[in-house]
Amino acid sequence: xxxxxxxxxxxxxxxxxxxxxxKSKGNTVTVVAKHMPGDYDIEYASPFAGANVLPxxxxxxSRWERRTWPELEWLCRNVxxxxxxxxxxxxxxxxxxxxxxxxxxxxxxLFDPNPWYRHMMPDYRELxxxxxxxxxxSGCSFTSVCLNTPMYLSWLVGQCLRNGVVFRRGVxxxxxxxxxxxxxxxxxxIVVNATGLGSLRLGGVRDTAMAPARGQLVLVRNDxxxxxxxxxxxxxxGEVLYVMHRAAGGGTIIGGxxxxxxxxxxxxxxxxxxxxxxxxxxDPELAGGKGVxxxxxxxHAVGLRPYRKGGVRIERETLRDEAEDGGSSVExxxxxxxxxxxxxxxxxxxxxxxELVNEIRAAKGEDLSKEPKLFNYDAAATPKL
Length: 385
Description:
Elements: E1 3-8, H1 12-22, E2 27-33, H2 63-78, E3 84-93, H3 95-98, E4 125-126, E5 138-147, H4 149-162, E6 166-169, E7 190-193, E8 210-220, E9 226-230, E10 239-245, E11 252-257, E12 259-260, H5 269-282, E13 297-308, E14 313-320, E15 329-336, H6 346-363
Parallel strand pairs: 1-2, 1-7, 2-6, 3-9, 7-15
Antiparallel strand pairs: 3-5, 4-5, 8-11, 8-12, 8-13, 9-10, 10-11, 14-15
Helix pairs in contact: 1-4, 1-6, 2-6
């Protein structure tokens, strides 16, 4: 008998988990989600992401990004229909942001002067002083990828469908209810919780460490050959500056904000004006040297990143299912709380989901000696951390 799994959540974390789990012939996988690729809703973060690879975790927690980068690089080289392309990225630092005594907020390891990822990202180098725009003290550049997120999410759905995954729309009040939504005709053996910010209020989870990290952005038609990000802005501490050119005609994302605890779904015109002004001031050629009026705006948007105090949660739990006679239990694997790095950690996190699922399968006596490889690249050559 196959192992039945219900993955709850249709964002990049849920879809990547379902995709890797579906590679095993021993798994029957159903994805249940309120929102699916193609939807745009404030509750559904994945379509609003840039998205690219800008390593954000400290070295000690870098497994997720170290394991994901080679797969995204492989997809970029070999699967153009997935919607990725290579881009040079410039990371600018202000020295005051690196000093805890003068920084307005804790800095991501992305801005470390000697970052762990310098050995992972291709073409990494420190920028010369002549390459720095006014107001920036140092920086680095390297080759990264940028994703056309609607295109990539649809590609993930296609890969899942090829492997027999069934998709069902549904709204759950309790995580345990998911086990009865398997298409296999019997309750699921395992539920994977990839509900992101929904884990704050979902019964059976109710993780109070979760909070929205509001991201307001502007999508423009203007194309630039490189991407950029700065360690801070001269405006509010909850405002940030980044520019990402999506693949396959997906436009250029200009951001933005990182406002923890803010649930506001509507774009603020004043913030939008600051976002665009910051971008063209740092990179005038983005608008052809015409200032903000040279930006060809597609839309203004807001997404809520699934921020979790204490970091991502990827672990097993046995959850009691009170709706079953006798109050039976269901095995749960959690994968949520990725904040702003869901795409660039997606394969590494989903790999850990598979490992935890396989622990459950092995405990039931399943033979896992002939499981297929999860990645297209040579995963054995990349150390697990």
